[in-house]
Automatic annotation (TrEMBL), chains A, B, C, D:
NCBIfam families noted in UniProt: urate_oxi (TIGR03383)
Record has Oxidoreductase as a keyword: yes
Functional note: Catalyzes the oxidation of uric acid to 5-hydroxyisourate, which is further processed to form (S)-allantoin.
Enzymatic reactions: urate + O2 + H2O = 5-hydroxyisourate + H2O2
Entry protein name: Uricase
One biological process term in Gene Ontology: urate catabolic process
Domain of life of the organism encoding this protein: Bacteria
UniProt binding sites for urate: T65, D66, R185, Q228, N254
GO MF entries: urate oxidase activity
Keywords: Oxidoreductase, Purine metabolism
UniProt source species: Deinococcus cavernae
Metabolic or biological pathway: Purine metabolism; urate degradation; (S)-allantoin from urate: step 1/3
Alphabetized InterPro entries for the sequence: Uricase
EC number: 1.7.3.3
Length: 292, 292, 292, 292
């Protein structure tokens, strides 16, 4: 502090957490010749009484983030027998038990999905795989290491339909509206979603598959008057198919496929030649919830 | 719905918003031969009464996201005379006024900073620029279009020091701790931060510069016993230098620079040869706030 | 030029080209209710007599890159009835014909592949799709606009096998070799490849599918003593299955899946718990060619 | 191979190389309290007699890519006293000497540049730094481990000028030209360049600084009739200022800043409000060479 600066003000630590991010872990099940793989990127963050570390530089009883990494790999060996949602609970419970200053935390997962390489018999290869889109996600949060709030999700499911979509009847701002109405357009969206549970535990893998199936089935099953309406219908379908889920959140980008103006070149364009505009895009976010 | 599925459940719309993302806008001030530029990526999202659009596909009085884009460019011409923080307020106020269903919303900015190209006289070029790191950010949120919560920030300020950093005295977990203690290490962090204001309005550009200066001055001015402590000191310095700021949040990654084991090759390594490990990294998040 | 600088040297233009990059184009076939889509990112570059433009700033007879863009969309409407390899030839031929200074050029394509959304009857949806990995690529080059060198490829085919791979018998450098030999490891690779043709034209779509099939069939069908050997076998399989192809080039990264050292924690690790190391990676590049 | 497939054809190995990519290395000079840092990402690839490894899976005398990594760090300690261009030569020479099958190879560097944090005395901090743009690159190639072809470069130097640029007099294609001519536009380019040397060795750091200075000085010093002409002028300036350089290659993207059509909203737009279009972009590539 040099002369002329204001006198030192009193400060305090607010909400905080720390941990390890981008821990890339693969677990291979080798119990039978037909191997199983789980390929995840993990972030673990701890919450608790970390005031002395911040304010005084006192690291007493702090779990090093390097220890967090080691623990993730160690517990993956001893546990992680099921879903990422369950593994997240194992991790948080462990850190709360181990660190006297740790009272809670969260674990976040991004899971890469792999498909067995094709074989003649249709069974898929026993130990060879090819990576797929989209990605599966999960987040487990706890304030005490005993009770957990679990969220699951899907990342970057890129869907498109070439017809049965429109955008009409909206506000015609006298100054700034230039977009013409249409009942025939291409609709494309990179869908990210996450959902919360109405139950304490369930078959998370099975729920994920059901959600994934509902999104793919609902996206094309209706004329879409707006991305918002399709979002809502997808949420409704998920809540119908999955009694385990209490509510679901979508972030859906509207990836604009603009009809390129070919009339200037003496060519007709019946929605056949489109500019896939990377930017900007409409972006819709909403929760769809059970009504009672 | 096919046979065998559960009866249709009742659903409702929860929290939601929509708008336009990744609107890339440059505004050039040409009033004098010494031009000024602002280069921003904008996201605007509106909140309000959008239930009919979601549930019934009724778009009545909805502002199209294409209109949002046009408006951003149009208002940038008429307004945007000052900071992104002020432009965000202009935008949200406009949409609340324009859309009968819009009650609020938020605007987010990522601003690319440019420096004048060097000239012999040290003044910098009048109309030629080179892009810089880090980036400036802002977020403006409002529930009514009249009162605003403003947050400002810095993104990807990558700092490093080659000494005056250590990590000691932490919990030695009997099983999972393998990291040796050290009082001499390289510390590197990609700093992202954001702050809230104690005042209704201020010179946002000037505050940003002061924060930027404090981060650069504080990062190296002490022996760092942990990234957490350095984070806290940076927050303290900012709150001292900027009475306009009520609290500041940091997300600081600990980019590990690992001393490469050269002893295996008969070579000594006095912290000179390091592996810059991209993954995993420690990740610290905390608010530093005024104590009273 | 200021005083003290060396006298002006004579310079000339060397090899050069210009054009438009990242033109994102979708073409939808709507002739029947079962729609077809092609989703490509195109770069077109022209070569020719562009000396005056560079040296004197004389743009006479230069085709604007904006015209290149318009032309890509226009010709996509009139042509692009088949593969990207054929469309590339249409494009280059057009620019050579149109621009008096243009003598040749190249067109590069990255094609996003889409799969029909699943339907109950196994036929796939008539107009709704989900985006897939990997990507298809092509490059068409010509010096005269009449004869063409065509290259096709696959980008980012991420393959992994959990066993039947090793790395033994290599040079044990007395100083710098620390890696132990193994006959049991995980092998993973993000495969990029491209191939040249022995024929003037062929069914490019069909060839691509055969190559894709061969890569997936060959990758797991042997014990792999090295990524190089697997690369070679994949090349051999492709040349066997595709008489249309003269040679094929692979770039295969060796994505290291490191057995995490759990012995430190009293745990056995039989290749089950692995660190998926993002960096560094082995990188192999080779052409596999017909022997006579 | 199953029945019905064509008989096995003879194949052979073509041009090939292998090595390690994305080796992230920092070297810190600690000889005085004023530390120096070099922060590089390295790729090393070896060429030579690798036929047996590919065709027979015989790894005899092959240098493991893990050994390549160890060697990069080890030699960085023993050597790397100067520029990346010289370090590349040390590396390739080493691998040719060490591997009986290795006859040559190449080393590629991407160097992150750091600036000292500001201090009151204008000297910059002794051991604290902030990362800068653009990046410095180099490539060293050799067929024998004794003679080297060195290329140096700059990556992602993002330049912009708000005036003194136009695009006129080009070909007006009767069908596909829609762009109006202009003598007043914004010109922006992300410049990547690389140069070859007329001398066997020189002060590579000093040359790099001179090139960097010339690019920044030349970009704004003229009215630009085209990006091609500015590219050529930048090349001419570099060849004038750097007798060590034989020729220089540029890849310059034309990042279009489109005047947003505000007339539709009753607003005049004198090149003030622009859409920074991310895609597509003009892309120019050219060598500028000494004329005799």
């Amino acid at each position: 502090m040099t002369a002329g600066q204001p006198p030192r003000v009193k400060v305090k630590l607010g909400e905080n957490n720390y941990g390890k991010a981008e821990v890339n872990l693969m677990k291979i099940g080798r119990d039978t010749p037909r191997h199983e793989i789980r390929d995840v990127q993990v972030r673990v963050a701890m919450t608790g009484d970390f005031g002395a570390a911040h304010a005084q530089g006192d690291n007493t009883d702090l779990i090093a983030t390097d220890t967090v990494r080691n623990t993730i790999y160690g517990l993956a060996k001893e546990g992680f027998a099921g879903s990422i949602e369950e593994f997240g609970q194992e991790l948080i419970a462990h850190f709360v038990k181990t660190g006297s200053r740790v009272t809670g935390g969260f674990a976040e997962f991004t899971e890469h999905l792999w498909e067995r390489l094709p074989t003649g018999d249709g069974q898929g290869h026993a130990h060879a795989f090819v990576r797929q889109m989209p990605k599966r996600t999960a987040r487990v949060e706890s304030g005490d290491g005993k009770t957990f709030k679990v969220t699951s999700g899907i990342q970057e499911l890129y869907l498109l339909k070439t017809t049965q979509s429109g955008w009409e009847g909206y506000l015609l701002d006298e100054r700034f509206t230039t977009l013409p109405e249409t009942h025939e357009r291409v609709m494309a969206s990179s869908v990210t979603c996450k959902w919360e549970y109405a139950v304490d535990s369930c078959d998370y893998d099975d729920v994920w598959q059901r959600v994934f199936g509902q999104l793919q089935a609902t996206f094309p099953d209706h004329y879409s008057p707006s991305l918002q309406n399709t979002l809502y219908r997808m949420g409704e379908a998920v809540l119908n198919a999955c009694p385990e889920i209490s509510r679901i959140w979508f972030q859906m980008s509207n990836k604009h496929h603009l009809v390129y103006n070919l009339a200037r070149f003496g060519l007709e364009n019946r929605n056949e030649i489109l500019h896939v505009d990377p930017e900007p895009y409409g972006l819709m976010e909403a929760w769809v919830e059970r009504a009672e």
